[in-house]
Amino acid sequence: MAQIKRIAVLTSGGDSPGMNAAIRAVVRKALSENIEVVGILRGYEGLIKKDFIPMNSKSVANIIQMGGTILKTARSEAFKTVEGRRIAYNNLIEENIDALVVVGGDGTLKGARALVEEYNFSVVGIPGTIDNDLYGTDMTIGFDTALNTVMEAVDKIRDTAMSHDRMFFVEVMGRDAGFIALRSGIACGAEAVVIPEVETNMNELHEKLLGYMNKKKTSSIILVAEGDDAGGAFRIKDALLKYGDDFDMKVTVLGHIQRGGSPSAYDRYLASRLGIAAVEALLDDQRSIMVGMIHKDIVHVPFNKTIKHHKTIDETLLRIVDILNT
Ligand code: F6P
Fold it and tell me: Of 15, 98, 106, 131, which residue is the catalytic one?
């Protein structure tokens, strides 16, 4: 077993529901092993600015049900620089911290890998992002809650879409990934789903929607992943306008509502399991790995692997969307 007396924990990148449950599990598992825990505020920014707070069992009381992150979060430009990481490492050493647990997405894990490579410091990552776009885990913390948020919103949109015989383009998050759009599309009975992983053929999409209208479907919901710089739903709607049909089209952008809210039971469970697994991994002398869950089992995925590989979309799910509209 590794000699670990003091660890630090931070959350970084876009927040996701369940991050608090993960912090709670890290803190309580560490305390149960007589390891001290320091919380770092605002992710890698706080690491550079030495924004550290002591944590005990009470500091994580009553947070399992809270969205957001009590440690706050940021996207740190400074940590992307060699100088920023040098300051960060010195702060860890000055505070006698033996190892670090980071909760976040792809950017967070890249930062963690740099710290391991440059300073051989022990870091374990926990996948926390609503996008579910990390290789090496079936689900990331926050994805399930975000799906439920989208589903509830789209159910409401469907009421008004039906009443007015309208076609709604609902934009959901996912800059590079269509996991939210695809999974919630099935859960909401969407008529079509547009995702960045699959090039959209506008003629085919138009034919499909026209077909539904001809079958006397008077309203439709099309879920669109935001894409590179958001605005994806507006682009699709504008492209369809050119066909000159008399569809009554509206766009709703769900935006940051998808990042908030009380975590679902599944996200609380996943975060609790992964938080404990992260501390166990450190005690097992692991470094430079992300803990994940595949088929209900805890797995250790090297940072190099999860960063290099892209989690792929299951394209059969797109076909399922079509089948369910037969
Ligand atoms: O990575 C999570 C995510 O919510 C993406 O889906 C989205 O594109 C991005 O963060 C938005 O980031 P920000 O809140 O910094 O604008």
Answer: 131
